Prior knowledge:
The protein is mainly alpha-helical. It contains 17 helices and no strands. Among the domains are: 1-78, no CATH class; 184-250, Winged helix-like DNA-binding domain superfamily/Winged helix DNA-binding domain (Arc Repressor Mutant, subunit A), CATH 1.10.10; 259-341, Winged helix-like DNA-binding domain superfamily/Winged helix DNA-binding domain (Arc Repressor Mutant, subunit A, Orthogonal Bundle), CATH 1.10.10. Helix 1 (2-13) runs antiparallel to helix 5 (49-78), helix 8 crosses helix 9 (129-145) and helix 9 (129-145) crosses helix 10. The protein is elongated. Mean pLDDT is 64; it is low at 11-48, 120-126 and 231-260. Keywords: DNA-binding, Sigma factor, Transcription, Transcription regulation.
Amino acid sequence: MLEVLAQIDNQHKSTTSLDENIKEDSVLELLKEITKKDVIKLVDIKPTRALKNAILSEISEIKKLEDLIFVCLREIRKTKPLKLEEEKELWRKIKKWDKEARQKFIEANLYLVIKIAKNKRYEWKWLELLDLVQEWTLGLLEAVNSNNPERKNKFSTYAIKGIKRFISRAIYEKWRTISLTYYILKKVNRIKRISINLSKKLWREPTINELAGELKMSIQEIEKFIIFGRDILSLDFPINEAEDTVLLDFMEDTNNICLEESINTAIISEKVDRILKNLKPRDEQIMRMRFWFDWLDEMTLVEVWDKFGVKKQWIYEAEKRIFKKLRKNPEFLKIAEDLIEK
């Protein structure tokens, strides 16, 4: 069984170019789609023999990977959980460095991987199926290595926690890679915006102390984000002397947003804007600062609190009160339902 998992991992590494297109879709579903006969018929239409052979080769590699996954899952389903006495017997052998006993113990507990795989929570969390299989297996191996055979409970009662911890860590690392860049960009953009505003007021470039006072940040923090910002290329970065062409102009629109979707977004924005204008001036300002439209980035409770000169709890209670009022508005509820469906 472990050999099959190793084969899957090696096959996965040899098809990294395909993994980039998998995104959040189920790997198995995608493989089924790619290996359909109609795809191969499309390939046959191509006049270039080399191209046809290359694509058929790719499909063949995917089919091998699909077969390996199915073999692995089928074999895992065949395994039966060990009884407590069987576990203890195997652990006595493992203590004597019996490799076969250790492998048997691991394979007998691979069903835990399937048990956790059924948890819908992990389907969309930035990790592809093969990455999850790898993390599940690593978590299981870690649980085996740290197992205390003197425990009265079965191995599975605490091994599941170890496997979930590995998955959570992998998800966090993937998320951190994405969100850290966004967090830095958000801070850098705010520093730039305040710097421009101060320049207009002072008719000169603001000092670091003036920026720190306006942003309510330490000088060290501002310097850190300025340094980070140099390493992240902005999409608005001009790439010609006239500064009329920016990096974004050369980037492909991967979202492929259609005209209809753009119009719908504009209509929703207009409706929400109209609803907010019916609120009291202060309530409207709070909602715009915290959630909507008029600000480059949403403001935190602390920033809004500082802006109004009131307690943070007051802002929190105000938000609850405003949302309670908005929920009585049929138009607002309809907009919320439409957004949830999307």
